[in-house]
């Protein structure tokens, strides 16, 4: 089977909940990412795009009715360009990239756009339909912003705990202290701020028209473990997880060009997609799921952790990130060297595209050959992709 390559990657700045991007519909955010991707990919003829695979975790509001196809139309692509939307919650856009790579690898298309979008600000409240007309009692509106909603009563209670409680349990199981979590979170802010100041994100981020947002809105320069230690626990009165050592609610979009070596583009690929992995375990242990997913991807790429020079792990919570890094026994200094989701943000459907695009550029900057992008996913899943830098002796 032919190899699949990552040719280019962009994303919007990630906005805070009810922040600068609150007035932008998710389908418009997705269109901005696609337009920016095409503008920054020399030689990309929209007529040659074989498919668009788009990630979205919500789909309950303005992102309904196949938001990937809506984005294609709003971005002005030819109506002949097909699109699908897939939902693997936080892993949706990484899943989209994996699916795109398989489409290319099978020979079904030479060029595929993958990506994802989420507006957690604009996620609607929903009402369940009554079983009979005109019920006399009150009905509760349910927020679709994050986490479990309209839970099936057959689900065991231990599976449906909140995301925060699930990670409190993870902290207990692996004995990961509040101090370690706060130090990890402070590092995320410091590295993200430094990366923006150094211009690393200039080629990766495209502006959103008519919005005054030059960089990720959630980064707090000067954040320290000491300042974070003053925050109160968010999920248990005596807990370890706070608003400071967990990812926030965000809005944003990401997009990627994935193609074969016969794309006809005027640029060389950034990286080869060398391995993919998907794993699952108990829903409440979702934060640990990237461990097995990354190990699978490495095995399929034919390498080991000793070969890896860079890791981009989505920071849903500091505690689950630390648990994964500990399990991999990888040098923490090669993980999220440009900051992570705790600082940058985690718009669910867009985060996988962000980590994959960032990884490709980090490999180029550090002149490392192999890298791993991984993400945890609610309801007990994880995904991972191994990239090979094509400028360091790979097959491209």
Q: Helix count, per DSSP?
A: 10
Helix/strand-derived category reads: alpha+beta
Q: Secondary-structure element order, as H and E? A: EEHEHEHEEEHHHEEHEHHHEE
Tally of DSSP β-strands: 12
How much helicity do the residues have? 25-40%
Provide a brief overview of the structure.
With 396 residues, the chain is of the alpha+beta class. It has helices at 26-39, 67-74, 92-105, 163-174, 178-197, 225-228, 290-301, 318-328, 341-344, 351-366, and strands at 5-11, 15-16, 51-55, 83-86, 111-119, 125-126, 142-143, 250-259, 271-280, 308-313, 370-377, 381-389. The protein has a domain at 5-123 and 247-388: Peroxisomal Thiolase, Chain A, domain 1 (3-Layer(aba) Sandwich), CATH 3.40.47.
Would you give an account of this structure?
This protein is of the alpha+beta class and 396 residues long. 29% of the residues lie in helices and 19% in strands. It has a domain at 5-123 and 247-388: 3-Layer(aba) Sandwich (Peroxisomal Thiolase, Chain A, domain 1). The strands form two sheets. Strands 1, 2, 3, 4, 5, 8, 9, 10, 11 and 12 form a ten-stranded mixed sheet that branches. The model has no long low-confidence stretch (mean pLDDT 96).
Keywords summarizing the entry:
10 helices; single chain; 396 residues; 29% helix; ten-stranded mixed β-sheet; alpha+beta; 12 strands; two-stranded antiparallel sheet; Peroxisomal Thiolase, Chain A, domain 1
